[in-house]
């Protein structure tokens, strides 16, 4: 049975390995200088060495793309308040993390460092219009920042 995750195609000029481009299901794979031998193997039609290396590159890019980092603040109940919209792919990009921290801090300052959650309380009876009672739970946010690692499954 053929593995459907990989469908490699390559294009380029035979006498210039630097022009070779590799595609998986039509998406271009970024080949950096560390994998320069891959282009030479493709030009020489040495697929026994080229295909496993191409699979490694694809898996590495897929792993890296699914993990993102953001800044969060601890709350008094032990949970963490963070934004799913503000994130970076690189954990060590300090400028980006600092800008996320400043934007969240500014927002929490506006809200007096409180996190308000809405809870609907009441019985819902089928066939009758009932208006549920709304209660708010307010949690205090400490000013202690943490780095939050999120994994997205596409």
Description of the structure:
The protein is an alpha+beta fold. It contains three helices and seven strands. The protein has a four-stranded antiparallel beta sheet with strand order 5-4-7-6. β4 (67-75) and β5 form a beta hairpin. The radius of gyration is 25 Å and the shape is elongated.
In short:
The chain is α+β, with helices and mostly antiparallel strands and 154 residues long. 29% of the residues lie in helices and 32% in strands.
Task: Write the topology of this structure.
Layout: E1 8-11, E2 21-24, E3 27-29, H1 36-43, H2 47-66, E4 67-75, E5 80-82, H3 94-110, E6 114-121, E7 133-151
Antiparallel strand pairs: 1-2, 2-3, 4-5, 4-7, 6-7
Top keywords for this entry?
4-stranded antiparallel beta sheet, 3-stranded antiparallel beta sheet, 3 helices, 29% helix, 32% strand
Low-confidence stretches: none
Helix content: 25-40%
What can be said about the biggest beta sheet? 4 strands, antiparallel
* First-to-last CA distance: 24 Å
Name the average pLDDT: 85
Strand content: 25-35%
Q: What is the β-strand count?
A: 7
- Given the structure, what is the number of helices? 3
Order of strands, widest sheet: 5-4-7-6
Apparent shape: elongated
Which structural class fits the helix and strand makeup? alpha+beta
Can you write the helix and strand succession as a string? Answer: EEEHHEEHEE
Supply Rg. Answer: 25 Å
**Quaternary:** single chain
């Amino acid at each position: 049975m053929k593995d459907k995750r990989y469908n490699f195609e390559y294009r380029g000029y035979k006498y210039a390995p630097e022009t070779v481009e590799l595609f998986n299901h039509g998406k271009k794979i970024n080949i950096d200088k560390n994998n320069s031998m891959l282009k030479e193997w493709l030009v020489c039609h040495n697929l026994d060495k080229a295909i496993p290396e191409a699979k490694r590159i694809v898996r590495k890019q897929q792993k890296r793309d699914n993990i993102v980092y953001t800044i969060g603040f601890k709350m008094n109940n032990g949970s963490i308040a963070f934004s799913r919209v503000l994130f970076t792919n690189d954990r060590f990009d300090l400028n980006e993390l600092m800008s996320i921290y400043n934007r969240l801090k500014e927002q929490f300052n506006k809200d007096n460092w409180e996190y308000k959650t809405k809870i609907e309380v009441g019985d819902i009876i089928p066939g009758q219009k009932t208006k549920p009672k709304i209660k708010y739970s307010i949690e205090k946010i400490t000013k202690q920042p943490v780095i939050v690692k999120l994994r997205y499954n596409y």
